[in-house]
Amino acid sequence: MMEDYLLECIDSLDKAGTDPLRRKKTVQRPKAWSLLPNEWRALALLAASNASVDTPSIESGGGAGRSRIGRRGGRGRIRGTEDWLSSPEKALASEWSSAYRLAVLLVHQNRGKDWVSSLESQLDDLRKECDLGIHPVWEALAKEAPILAELGRFPVTEVKGPEIDAESWAVASEIDPQDPIQVRGWLSLELPFRTNSEQDHALHAIRRDLADGKPRMNMWLRKMKPSLRGLRAEGALLEGILLAASSSDQALEVLEGIEGGEIGVVAKQQARLIRIRSGEMTDWKESALREGEDGLSTAMRVAAWREAEHCGEVLSADELFRGESVLAEVDEQLPNPVLWQLASKLVTEDKFDAAVEIVEKAEIESPEHVSTALTLVSSTESDHVSQAILSSIPEMNEDGVVSVIAGEGVAIGTRVEAAREMLKRDSIRHTDLVLNTFVEAADVDGMLAVFEESPSLASVYPQRVLLCWHLYSSGDMADKGGISNLRKVALSSIEGSSKDPHLSDTSVALISLLDGLAQEVESIHEKLDSDGLRSLNEVRRALSVEGDGVVRETRINSLLESVGKANLTTLERRLFEALIVSLQLNRSSMDLQIGRPKTRVEAAVKSLGNLSWQNGVTMKTVRTVTDLVVEYNIGVPALEEWYRQHAKASPELQVVRAAILREKGDRLNAARAYKDAAGKLGDDFEKSSLVMRKALIEFAHSAGWNEAVSIIDSNPALASTVTSRFKLYLRTSDHHVAERRNQAGSELMAFAADQVEANGEVSIAEDRESVLEGLLRYPEEHDLPSEPFVGRVRAAMKNLSTVWTGRQSDVERRVMIELRGRRDPNEVTKLAMGVAEEDPFGGLRILEKAIYSNLLEEGQSETLKKTQRALFTSHSGIIPIKERRTLKGLSLKPLIIVDTNILIEALKDDLLRELSVDNLGSLDWTVERAFYWMLRRRSEEGRVVLHVPPAAEGEFMHRARNSQSVLKLFSDMYIEKSIWDDSIDDEFLVKRAKSVLATFDNWSKGAGRGDSVELDGFLTKHRDVFLLIDEQKRKIGRAPARTSINGDEIYPEKGDRDIMSDAANIAAACYADIGSVLVATRDSDFRLVSRALEEEFGFGVVGDAQQLNDRVL
User: Is residue 202 helix, strand or coil?
Assistant: First the structure.
């Protein structure tokens, strides 16, 4: 082949003339030049340069073709094209013809340079071989290059085509034309027909492209034009296969135009391969099941099975398995629908394990696929198939999703995801199916989503709404209103609703127990073993109103173990877990209420933290723990973390954070947290005011005077809920820190003068001194820091223009000197008795201060307590109760005046015990319920005296006048009317109401009412507060009964005013055994002006169990 290329180049010199440069350029123009190796090109250049023995150099005639070997810019050996000539050794070792080898040796011999005489024998051998005949090119070369003239004497033989078997070559053409490796191997074969240099050049370019490793086969069409186009016979097969390799549309036409012989057979199969690959299914089965291991057969099988989805053939499982095997050999798998065909056939044949293996490779795309997968899940419980179903749910059509939701044996988690998907698609006709699935899975978020989409369902499925109320754990605090409204609808609809078939008797019983009224508890008991049942009953009895509140940890653990072992549905288990959490919350709240011992309180706080940290903690638990934090000021870090993750913008987060900071001693930042929370509670005036009051107290304890004063100045409504003395306390301390001491003194003196004038007395120094002496005791009486306020009061007292020095203050200073010196109780008694001659209360105060100074031994303090008690006994008839509240040493009992709302709460709880099948009452903990329990407990302990004033008694008996009116009090829980009617009639109700009154009215002197106290001035002074209270009550849907003053119908109703008047009268009286007067109420009319009531009339207000304990313990 090289000799043909060389001959074509030499023949081009016929018209090149004699100019050496022109001849050199001419010899390189034929396509054959690019096909020649450099060794052969050297011979062509010898011809072009007419090389002779005298001028053997290829470079004769010019300097063209020289190049420098080496790096650019560096030194290198100058290399010419004569260096292309092969060395004698390489030429002899080559496989080229004898004439080529002889030509190379002759050039080297004639040059004489580096010629080795030992090569002479090689020359003779080559001459003998050439005598047998040589290619015509050597004769032409001898004519052009005299140096090789010897070659002209050898006989020239006729050039023949390649002796290649065309049929064998056609068989070798059974390749995959789109497989570069196969094409490369095929093109390396000798062609069965003679080609010209143009064709060889094109083929050479294609082979070189293949050799690069990244062939651009789509570019071959350009390389093939024109030399490899329009060929015939074997050439047409070459053309067709190359066109197919380049993905040319013309390949099919070329191949189908070939007929006859083996090349016709191969061309037909190549054309079929192209048609299959283009999606034509003619003769698909023949191709898919074709035998043979050649590249073409393999490609046809692979191509056919790749398109098996569209073949239109009914195939057996064995045939499909064969297709799977074919594609597996090329690391592919059957089209997804075909895999499902195979899986379905295997399922029909009960070959479930084999079907699972197939499905593991497939993706679910149609309802039919879902059906097959569901059959496998129910038959094999394959996790992989379940996961496949789960992951494909979003892409399923509606029928497919429905089949998953209703699928037998499908994991509940998968069914829930399908139900969620259906819910997203807003398909109303499947709402019941979706909701039932959520119920079965106890998926509260899903149930709530359905109710949110269709609120009317709350009246159809009221029990489901109630279980959501107890189990939902959404972190969005804004959801609270929505579920509360759903609960109201459910409670109003449950009476006429039918039994829910998807709720077991146990679930219904647990819901009723959690909701407050235990019914049909037998189904609950049946689920527990004996230890669990015993533990449940013991815990419930201990946490009932008549229980001791002591719950052993072992009982809780025993109940947990029993529930863990019980055979329960998912929903039943969730409800049992909620029951146990409720019991734990009740136990912790009870421990906090009792307040002792310290270890029990610490354990309660720890338990609340654990409950707040549980995964999926319910909103009911969060609300309960938050209420306890607010009431008892306990730090629960886990609850703070919950709010940070789920409701970081809520006021509750700041309240919880403030309690933690307060507990750590960081009271300044606690105050700021309370302030932030109060700002976020702006829509609820009562809560905002109570929290802001906490902020002011914390600012006082952290010397944040300026911030506290700023709050009062910027919140007029809040300022009206704070007493004038507290505002004076804050402003005086702020003035002192800011070094405005003259202003502090002036305001103190002005306050004293106002107080004297308000009492209708002459404004003399002695009276102002008395007021200032009272201010000295203000911080101590209210558990506030004494400095710098007391220091400023003392400075103001010194500035009074009088010779009267204040005997009591003088004696108090002498007592303190005595206590720091000799510590003689007799001397202290003598000094106190001296003051008591003119001011019995002053004498008692001096003894009180000495007793609690921490400067005396225990025996000495006890001696002074006896003296104080004796002094009080002799003067109790002239010391009003409102002045005794700071005399802790007397151990006098507080008188608690019980408001109507407390009595109502107690009556409701009493009736629930009557209605519940186990007589243990409600399980639900509330702040209101805890408050009345604590009142009752402290009364039974003998720590307090309870009294129901006539106004509260009258209102209470009016509201409890008949059973139907009382039933309306239970609007926040479900009570079956038939059970109510069977258990509660008017006669029974009156009996229970009187029993409640007897429980909360054990003060023997509490008969009748005293003179009415003038309240209008006090109430109008706090007009802004009552205006906001009135607005708040109306905003939440309660139209309050109000009284009118000066045309403003915003003030407390007559009954509340009567209670205020009664409390004021009692506080001004001198009952011997009473140490203070407190009104127990949850009414904001009392709570928001509580400090003002205490300052004005001498009675306090308690609104929860902790406030009660703070006053009593």
Answer: helix
Q: In which band, very low, low, confident or very high, does the pLDDT at 15 lie, cut at 50, 70 and 90? A: confident
Looking at residue 82, what is its pLDDT?
A: 61
**Among candidates 37, 38, 39, 60, which has minimal Cα distance to 48?**
60
Residue 875 region by backbone torsions, left for phi larger than 0, else alpha for psi between -120 and 50, else beta: alpha
CB 583 within 8 A of CB 575: no
Residue at 988: amino acid letter: F
3-state secondary structure of 1080: strand
Half-sphere exposure of 494 (CA within 13 A, CB side): 24
For 894-909, give one letter per residue: b (16+ CB within 10 A) or e.
bbbbbbbbbbbbbbbb
Per-residue H/E/C for 843-908: HHHHHHHHHCCCCCCHHHHHHHHHHHHHHHHHHHHHCCHHHCCCCHHHCCEEEEEECHHHHHHHHH
Q: Where are the domains of the chain?
A: 2-153, 335-431, 442-503, 519-611, 626-704, 725-805, 893-1112
Question: Can you tell me whether residue 1044 is helix, strand or coil?
Answer: strand
* 1075 SS3 class: strand
DSSP 8-state code for residue 174: -
| Contact of 46 with 58, CB cutoff 8 Å | yes
SS (H, E, C) 565-608: HCCCCHHHHHHHHHHHHHHHHHHHHHHHHHCCCHHHHHHHHHHH
How far, CA to CA in Å, does 119 sit from each of 53, 88, 102, 128, 708?
A: 18, 8, 11, 15, 118
**Start-to-end CA span in the chain (Å):** 118
79 bridge partner residues = 67
Please give the sequence-ordered ranges of beta strands (E in DSSP) within 9-149, or none if there are none.
67-68, 78-79
DSSP per-residue letters across 965-1027? HHHGGGTTS---HHHHHHH--HHHHHHHHHHHHHHT---TT--S--PPP--HHHHHHTHHHHH
The neighbouring-strand residues paired with 1079 are: 897, 1101
Main-chain dihedrals φ then ψ at residue 1010, nearest 5 degrees: -85, -170
According to DSSP, residue 134 is labeled B
Encoded tokens for 950: 């006539």
Q: Identify the bridge partners of residue 1101 per DSSP, sorted by sequence position.
A: 1079
Provide, rounded to the nearest whole percent, the portion of the chain with pLDDT above 90: 38
CA–CA distance, 511 with 490 (Å, rounded to integer):
13
Give the residue carrying structure tokens 């506080």. 1067
pLDDT score, position 1075: 93
At which residue do the structure tokens 């899975």 appear? 441
Please give the average per-residue pLDDT across 457-482, as a whole number: 80
Q: The tokens of 145 are what?
A: 């290059």
CA 271, CA 278: separation in Å to the nearest integer?
11
Sign of CA pseudo-dihedral 196, 199, 205, 209: negative
Task: Report DSSP state, residue 1042.
Answer: -
Residues 569-591 as b or e (16 or more Cβ within 10 Å = b) = bebbbbbbbbbbbbbbbbbbbbb
pLDDT at 906 over 60: yes
Residues 6+ apart with CB under 8 A from 522: 509
Model confidence at 70: pLDDT above 50: no
Taking residues 51-66, what's their average pLDDT? 54
Lowest mean pLDDT among 288-297, 473-482, 560-569, 812-821: 473-482
How far apart are the C-alpha atoms of 767 and 755, rounded to whole Å? 9
Residues whose CB is less than 8 angstroms from the CB of residue 397 and which lie 6 or more positions away in sequence, other chains included? 366, 367
Q: What is the pTM of this model?
A: 0.71
What's the CA gap between 1092 and 1087, in Å, rounded?
10
- Gyration radius (Cα) of the chain, Å: 54
- Phi first, then psi: give them for residue 173, nearest 5 degrees: -85, 5
